[in-house]
Amino acid sequence: MERRAEPRLPWNAPIRITVLSSPPRHYDAVLVNVSGRGARLRLEQPLDCDLPVRIDLNNALLLGEVCYCATDGDGFGVGILLEHSLMNLAEVVRMRDRILTGSGELAPAAPRRA
User: Fold this and answer.
1) How far apart are CA 26 and CA 19, in angstroms?
2) What is the dihedral sign for C-alpha 63, 64, 65, 68?
3) Is the pTM of this model over 0.90?
4) Which of 19, 31, 41, 85 has its CB surrounded by the most CB atoms within 10 Å?
5) How far apart are CA 102 and CA 114, in angstroms?
């Protein structure tokens, strides 16, 4: 019986993860699955719990912290508790460029449906 509040979507895509430490540390990983509140990664090295991380996807940026790390075959399964996500980064960049260059007005946001 599934006990999660939100379904996990299988992803299986290579990603870049950054541990937000001083100095930042970068790792290649695989995004195994993702939900609204969490993600599971597979890395070749372990990560300590409570580390803040940044996950860069194709057109999205996810911020969270490591909530578990366990051996997984010849690597490590890492759970991330997601705190913030920024989707559709290409549109955010276009909006920024329009604002900085004054090349057009921004359309009002569409009303959200409840």
Assistant:
1) 6
2) negative
3) no
4) 41
5) 33
Per the CB < 8 A criterion, the answer to whether 20 and 11 are in contact is: no
Say how far residue 12 (Cα) sits from the centre of its chain.
13
Q: Kindly write down the DSSP assignment for every residue of 62-76, as one continuous string.
A: EEEEEEEEEEETTEE
Sign of the alpha-carbon dihedral angle for 77, 82, 87, 92: negative
What pLDDT digit, counting tens, does each position of 82-111 carry? 999 888 888 888 888 888 888 765 555 556
Please give the DSSP secondary-structure letter assigned to residue 4.
-
Write down the domain spans for the chain. Answer: 9-101
